[in-house]
Amino acid sequence: MKAFLKRKKIDISWKSYGIKAMSAMAQGLFASLLIGTIVKTLGEQAGKAVADINGLKHICDWLVDIGAFAQSIAGPAMAVSIAVALQAPSLVVFSAVAVGYTANSQGGAGGPLAVLLITIVAVEFGKAVSMETKIDILVTPFVTVVLGGLLSIWTAPSIGKAANYVGKVTMWATEQQPFLMGILVSVIIGIALTLPISSAAICHSFGLIGLAGGAAVAGCCAQMVGFAVLSFKENRFGGLVSQGIGTSMLQMGNIAKKPVIWLPPIIASAITGPIATCLFKLRMDGPAISSGMGTCGFVGQIGVITGWNGSAGWIDWVGLLLISFVLPAILCFVLGRIFRAAGIIKDGDLKLED
Questions:
Q1: Total domain count for the chain?
Q2: CA distance readout (Å), 282 to 291, 309, 314, 324
Q3: pLDDT per residue over 47-80, tens digit each?
Q4: Are residues 267 and 236 in the same domain?
């Protein structure tokens, strides 16, 4: 059996499913739902500004349509990304399109989690039968699509409901206990963003919006801006950009070598989270995926602004800027100086590989 699994490139492990597959799913989400949301929002907002200019208005309408089309294929995009990450043969990858569409549509608000779990099973079985018969062109797609479809019908609604329930409980608890939950949500989602898993997929699966979404944005920003500032001495402006609007996941290699370097951003997220929920009442009422993106392409901020629907006051803008950029930068700068002075963090600990 071990030889068969090795030959079929089936690695039953947390690394394969919890890290590789989930990270790939996040890329699929980004290339469909997230970019579609950005394009659609751009078209809607620009359309309001040029409503009286026919030519430009048509272009904005096209952007809205393109964004909507991109959003609609999130399920297939996630499934294909997962299949590629699991090193599936071409026929299995192509068959994953139908599996992703079915699982996402049956899973409702918790569709991404359903896509992740069901696609993994369908793809691995598809890999197992691939090239084992003379009619592979029929057998492999049949096994992958039918198994994925049946699992979607049987389990996706329940998976979706469970994910939705977790999200609702989290959002309810944050409304009731904004200080405590502000800390917990901010720290947990922030850590997930830096780990090689997907905070965006987690937030989207749980439908995390509202006050809890604001705390999640705070935690993600604390990690990204925090590491960008904390490591400025080693990585200069290149690191500032790559981590500040790219991803703090770039520091995982250094964190694995010396976990203590993670403390300043985590402490910063524990501080900015409750400030976001208690002081500024920062809400992320845009697409749930934006809650887990932080300053990556400024998607978290775009999500917050989208949720305002043009009704924000100056205090909302001040809160967003402070939580997203100013406070994480100041906190991690100060904490970094303290940690370096105490010899806890040394020069080179945060150096990114070229």
A1: 2
A2: 11, 14, 13, 11
A3: 877 777 777 888 999 999 999 999 899 999 999 9
A4: yes
